[in-house]
Amino acid sequence: MARVIGTAWGRLSERVRQRAAANFVPQDDPARIGGALRESEADLAARHICLFVGRHEERWEAFRPFFLKHFYAGKPTIYIHSASTREEIMDRVRDEGLDPHELNRRGLLTLIAAQDAYLKNPTFTPEFAVAFMRLQIIRKRADNHPSHLLCGEMDWFFTNAPGVESMHDYETALNDLLVEHPQTTIVCQYDLSRFAGIDVMKACCSHPAVVYRKRLYRAITPPPTAGRGGFSRWIRVVALNPRSRQLPARSGKIGASRDR
Question: Rounded to whole angstroms, how far apart are CA atoms 141 and 118?
Answer without folding.
Answer: 21
